[in-house]
Amino acid sequence: MALLRITSPHAHTARSTGNLMQNVLLATVPGVLVLSYFFGFGTLVNIAWASILAIAFEALALKLRGRPLGFYLKDCSALVTAILLGVALPPYSPWWLIAVGMASAILLAKHLYGGMGYNPFNPAMVGYVVLLISFPVQMTTWAAPRGAGDLPDLMQAFQALFTPAAFDGVTMATPLDVLKQNNSLLIEDLWQENPQFGRWAGLGWEWVNIAFLAGGLWLIYQRVFTWHAPVAMLVVLALMSSLFYDGGSSASGGSPLFHLLSGATMFGAFFIVTDPVTSAVSTRGRLVYGAMIGLLVYLIRVWGNYPDAVAFAVLIMNFAAPFIDQYTQPRTYGHGQSAGGKK
Predict the structure, then answer these.
(1) How far apart (Å, rounded) are the C-alpha atoms in residues 81 and 127?
(2) Final residue before a domain boundary, out of 139, 172, 205
(3) Bridge partners (DSSP) listed for residue 171
(4) How do residues 174-206 score in pLDDT, each as one tens digit?
(5) How much is the pLDDT for 171?
(6) CA-derived radius of gyration, the chain
(7) Are 187 and 278 in the same domain?
(8) CA distance 301 to 170
(9) Cα first-last separation, the chain
(10) Do 267 and 216 share a structural domain?
(11) Any idea what DSSP says for residue 112?
(12) pLDDT tens digits, one per residue of 115-138
């Protein structure tokens, strides 16, 4: 009887890529619901249109590459990219903006490098950055946090795909934008003039971040990813904002709570930084990777040109992930770590 000639590792698991991606999709539900409650149904429309485009672009790329459609479409990776980009885009974005973003994410950032598992950069963040650099006006106009009852209903939100200019009256700058542009008012006075900013980080934004935090903690409980990268990012971001917080002067970069509960902080920490393909894979590497993203987020938010820096920070560290893994590989069992000829 001949032995099977197979290579290690020999561990087996019932958790497929599709199963993991479905868990990620479920974990986004609390954040999407809270976004829709405060900012209207535009986010749901973004996700629906982005999902249709993602499947279409994915099928097109697979067809051109001669790959079986059913096998690759059922892993849900295209849908995850669609939802991540749909959440990141401002509500009531025009159809063409979402189409350009999804084409950049699926065709350019994913399939140009060989498809799922071979892409060095996070596809959703590539699509987001392409749009942010190319169309800054459309990408920095968010709906005011008035609640779904005071914003366009679901049918009007679908109409906004084709006539977004009709809804400009319900848009405003985000708290990160306003703080970035402030150069004369104390933080307390700035908040008094903008009651929609809420208590710490912006009305609506605080609850959105808490909802994505809850979804991220559930993913850690489900062991979809480990805690190392997101916790390292949040700790370093909180540490930097604590060190440089001056109490609220006109030149303040914001308090630790402001940075933790505004913008895409929790969404980025638990749904972007933890991408298993483009992040570091060793345990120490994930700590370094997450910490550097937290550092870059603060540096770009406070001293850079963009108010929310999660996408740029992630893409920069995607470059560095292989380098980090190279120098943080765990010691092989049974071998000492050599340093200067000593073991």
Answers:
(1) 9
(2) 172
(3) 143
(4) 777 777 776 767 767 677 766 666 677 777 889
(5) 64
(6) 21
(7) yes
(8) 25
(9) 43
(10) yes
(11) G
(12) 888 899 999 999 999 999 999 888
